[in-house]
Amino acid sequence: MIALIAGCGNPGPAGPSAEKSLILATTTSTQDSGLLDELLPAFTRDSGWQVKTLAVGSGQALELGRRGEADVLLVHSPAAEEAFMAEGVAGRRLLVMHNDFVLVGPAADPAGIRGTPSVEAMGKIAAAQAVFVSRGDDSGTNAKEKDLWAKAGVTPEGSWYQSTGQGMGETLRVASEKGGYTLSDRATYLAQRDTLSLDILSEGDPGLLNVYHVIEMTSKAGDRVQPEAATAFADWIVSPPAQQMIGQFGVAKFGQPLFTPDAGKDEAALGR
């Protein structure tokens, strides 16, 4: 399901300025965590560009870019992104920020994963055939989940393994209702924690790093792409003011930032 979020700010009077609008395809975590509600009004104010957001899984966001149906992408599925960049239809791919993934589940923890490393935890969930709720939507989170299952030597199947085909917020809700486990980005979990009966049970592995990039689309992807819009957004989100906003997001409400700004950093050193 694609969630279309209308542009932020007032559209202003009719005329050329009202038509200055770009399409951002991004992972649902940036929407469900509330980050875009902070960033996009500031971007519009600073640049004059209105933003129409397509909140989907990273795989779907890349596909929208491939079809020329988005001007710029904000995604978190590095392996898929690298393959996408090799196709030659995109411009720059810039490091923006990171947070991490966490394994969450009911406080009773029927599979006994509390405090165990993520790969071991996945093996325990499968062995116990405890309910696991997957996004199943080709998102960056879904890609990370598949990677963890593979490292655990597990092919998840059976009635205990359930898929929503939905975004992170909805998947967390289903896992909470079913008393199941799921993999979530930390930001979306913290943003919705008060509505969930789920605890963080496994966290902190270097392998749970969750890295976000902005990708500019070019006219090679299609005539509808606005390269100048892509450049405007990419330049802005890695700028010091935007990076400062990212670093402060969540501190007032949760006592910790939900994302760590990374523009200009050595990506290979992240999470060390």
Automatic annotation (TrEMBL):
Q: Which domain of life is it from?
A: Bacteria
Q: Where is the PBP domain?
A: 18-240
Pfam family name, one:
PBP_like_2
What is the designated name of this protein? Substrate-binding domain-containing protein
